[in-house]
Amino acid sequence: MPDETPINADRADLLVYRDDRGRERPVRDAAEWRLRREQILASMQRVMGTLPDPAHRVPLAVETLEEARLPGFRRRRITFAAEAGDRVPAYLFLPDGVTAGAPAMLIPHPTGARGKDQPAGLVGPETTHFAPQLARRGYVALAPDYPGSGDYACDPYALGYVSATMKGVWNHIRAIDLLQSLPEADPERIGAIGHSLGGHNSIFVAAFDPRVRAVVSSCGFNAFPKYFGGDLTGWSHRGYMPRIADVYGRDPAHMPFDFPEVIAALAPRAFFTNSPVDDDNFEVSGVRDCIAAARSVYALLGAEERLVAAYPAAGHDFPDETRALAYNWLDRQLRAA
């Protein structure tokens, strides 16, 4: 992608774009918003590296390693091919009694050595056990490992990526391919849900893949200037995006993109954030900044009701009451005829 892609200096001012002469223009309709959105995705790729093109796909070649029958669902431990020479471990949940047409969820996991085991309900707090909880509600669910976590000893940089984040995006795109291939799942009713690391990875894959119709992000983001006072060190290690340090000096002012833009890039698709007021990772006023900015785009596209933010009195967690709201919201987005 060309380095000369225009960047808007104020990344919270979303209803402007720069034309091919670098002149600032107002965004007045959906067509002009698409121009700004293209600039946002290009700016994300400056930091993450280029999204692989469709020719990067190989047959999924799904292998089932074991299957467990549990109350309400079957849980399969599988691997699938993300690209030549690389297989991703994952858990696939299939609800009892479902043979076709079920809504499906991609579930990237939080930070943790056990990776996919946490959303699969095998470790960690119940508030992050999304896969069994959603499977019992009738959702097909897929929880893959992120590079370097769980059973996935993958080095994205040895495969030619410049960030683990973009390798995660690609793997999650392939995970959506897998969900669409299943006879039990409706290929048109796919969502993503995740907490923390999984919260922003759900956003990232949806930004690049329009097949994701609804996103739930728990404790997954805030505006970069309010992330630990603007110190982006936590985003810049090899598990995320090293260019944030190497090229952009860990400085929000030099970053080509920010989360107000990424959230807006999801519009008019449905987005729900759980952002507790005492989250010590993602300071809540920075979340409110993102939502306020993105709301202008959702309003422009006539979809303001699809942007929902919950701010419970909690820390870095997904409290039961808020999670129930999110699940009911998902039902409305993905079960409606």
Task: Give an account of the 3D structure.
The mean pLDDT is about 95. It contains 8 helices and 11 strands. With about 325 residues, the chain is an alpha/beta fold. Strands 3-4-5-7-6-8-9-10-11 form a 9-stranded mixed beta sheet, sandwiched between helices. α3 (about 165-180) crosses α4. The N and C termini lie far apart (about 40 Å). The longest helix has 19 residues, at about 30-50. It has helices at about 30-50, 130-135, 165-180, 195-210, 245, 260-265, 285-300, 320-335; strands at about 15-20, 25, 65-70, 75-85, 85-95, 100-105, 140-145, 185-195, 210-220, 270-275, 305-310.
Structure summary:
The chain has eight helices and eleven strands. The strands form two sheets. A nine-stranded mixed beta sheet has the order 3-4-5-7-6-8-9-10-11, with helices on both faces.
Q: Strand-residue fraction?
A: 15-25%
Rounded average pLDDT: 96
What is the helix content? Answer: 25-40%
Structural class determined from secondary elements: alpha/beta
The gross shape turns out to be globular
Report low-confidence residues grouped into runs of 5 or more.
none
Q: Order of strands in the sheet with the most strands?
A: 3-4-5-7-6-8-9-10-11
Radius of gyration: 19 Å
What is the CA-CA span between the terminal residues?
Answer: 39 Å
> Biggest β-sheet: count, sense, barrel?
9 strands, mixed
- Secondary-structure element string: EEHEEEEHEHEHEHHEHEH
How many strand segments?
11
Number of helices: 8
